[in-house]
Amino acid sequence: MKNMVRYFIAITFIAIGVMLVLANIGVIHFNFSLAWSYIYPIFFIVIGLKWLFDFLKKIGGSWIFGSFFILFGTLLLLDRFEIISFTFGDIFKLWPLLIIYIGFMLVGRKKMKVEYKGDHGDHTSMFSFGSHEFINQNWKVEPMKLSNWAGDFYFDFSKAFIPDKEIPITIHSLAGDVTILMPESVEFKVYASVKAGEVNVIGQTAEGINRSLTYETKAYDTSLRKIDFNIKLKAGSIRIDYV
User: Which intervals of the chain form a coiled coil (predicted)?
Assistant: First the structure.
């Protein structure tokens, strides 16, 4: 942390000095607001370069965070020079990078474990890739624990056979989208969270970084037939709509 503060102060002085020189020779018009808009993207780039170099020299660092900060800072700078349009709030749009990073990490693995197993009637998937669709007519809803590296989940509960009991469904994924269609006759509650992305549950929305949303239908507590969703994504979108 001390090193980052030192780097930040150093970059601030360097950037302000360069801009003052350019202002003195008539290249730009200097003001602090303008200076700051250039300083913090450069800070991200420098920190990213340090992490990347430290990783390559095998003295710590991180190639993932290093490359991400370099890209993020570069995009911000390109916006400042009016080459592209990209603001700090657009960071969540970079979530597909997680899929790329996962691919690179798997290249270095000798073996990836993919396992499907049942536990007391539960349906469990661990460390899988690809899409999961539950759309067949009269598919039976059972307790589920689904984990995915990357891929989408699609549930159509209007086509499902739903027993008269409380059914927990847990979905965890690094990257992907979760879409759920619910009939209005079925009660449910949901806890949904994303590190980067969007949550939309029956019109209630939350988007950006580290967002979560909790929702419960009015008759959930008194209903015999109901579904309890727990959905967590590192990056992607979660959407629940009535059909």
Answer: none
